[in-house]
Structures are given as structure tokens and as C-alpha cells.
Amino acid sequence: MLLLLEDAKRRPELFDWFGAIPRREIEDWLLRHQLELPPDIIELWHVTGGGDVFESETILRPTVASYPNGSFVEDDIESFNTDHATELNRCGVYVFQRGVFLSAVRLRDQYFVTLTKNYVIAEWFSSLDEWYANTLRAEFGPRYGLSPNDE
């Protein structure tokens, strides 16, 4: 199970999920947008649909049949990536998280990355667990009693 989901079980009040997305709808969405993304982000969307994490972070939600565009206007992954397309295309990334910083998938190698305010890749991680442990959990975990030993 993903570390992010384990933390959500430990401290559910810190995670406000949008709602699970059927796997078939995620697959259709990926085909429609000609995207290839890592299986762990797909699993997270399947289980949670994305949502608000800790006090300031949002894992953006794909627009799928069960939640048509407009249901999550502020947290719509396509709109965010379209609005910032010039900068993001230059980096070759697709943003999936926004908040204190931006996180994305680097499309050429499927690494999870964080971006600076100038859209420069700051860090990269090989999995969603590694990304979460070294970014959101490292930043917010100690404040909420999620220690590194909980992994």
C-alpha cells in the first residue's frame, strides 16, 4: 500500500479526498489525453480521486465521466496544465500536485519531480512513495506526528 494511503488511515482528518475513480475511467482519460503516467499515481487516483492533503496541498484530479469538468474546477488537472503549458512543456512535465510547491511527472522517464517557482526541476524521485516521503511528509509529517519510523 502507498505510504500516502497508510498515513491517511493513521490520520484521516488530514486528508480530504475527492472520491475514488473507477480504473476504466482513468484509463480512458489517459488515452484521451495521450498520457502515460506511473502506475502509483494511477492507483492513488483510483483509490482517492486526489484531494486536499495537510493544510495547503492539493493532489489534482483528472476529469473523468463520474466527475465531469466543472465538478472540481479549482482542482482540475487539465486546466492547470493547460494554463501553464508554455512553462511545463519546456520541462516536459505534467503537474499533479500544487501547494507550497508544484510536483509533476517528468514524461520522458516517468520520474516524480518538484518544480521551483520558475518551473525548473528541483528534485526527482523514482516512485510516488519516495516523492511523498521526501516532500509533503518531510514538510508536514512532524507537525502531525507522522514520524519517519512510521514507514
Architecture overview:
- With 151 residues, the chain is of the alpha+beta class.
- It has a single domain (3-150), classed as 3-Layer(aba) Sandwich (SMI1/KNR4-like).
- It is 36% helix and 20% strand.
- It has a 7-stranded antiparallel beta sheet with strand order 1-2-3-4-5-6-7.
- The chain is globular, with a radius of gyration of 15 Å.
Give the tags.
alpha+beta, 151 residues, seven-stranded antiparallel β-sheet, 7 helices, globular, SMI1/KNR4-like
Produce a short descriptive summary:
The chain is an alpha+beta fold and about 150 residues long. About 35% of the residues lie in helices and about 20% in strands.
Number of E strands: 7
Structural class: alpha+beta
CATH class: Alpha Beta
Q: What is the alpha-carbon Rg in Å?
A: 15 Å
Q: Could you state the order of secondary-structure elements as H and E?
A: HEHHEEHHEEEEHH
Number of helices: 7
Counted up, domains total 1
Oligomer: single chain
Query: What is the end-to-end distance?
Result: 11 Å
- Biggest sheet, spatial arrangement of strands: 1-2-3-4-5-6-7
Task: Report the sheet with the most strands, covering strand number, pairing sense and barrel closure.
Answer: 7 strands, antiparallel
Strand-residue proportion: 15-25%
User: Do you know the CATH topology?
Assistant: SMI1/KNR4-like
CATH level-four homologous superfamily name: SMI1/KNR4-like
* Uncertain segments: none
What is the 3D form? Answer: globular
Helix coverage percent: 25-40%
